[in-house]
């Protein structure tokens, strides 16, 4: 039982270590894209009105 729990915990740790950097990268890129959209409005939208 203890060995199984340890194996599962190890798998979870490795998964979080592998997934966390990807999530941080995606969130950072999303924030950058949002900032870009907020600071620089799309010309097509401004010219349409």
UniProtKB/TrEMBL annotation:
**Superkingdom in the source lineage:** Eukaryota
- Its name, as the record gives it, is Uncharacterized protein
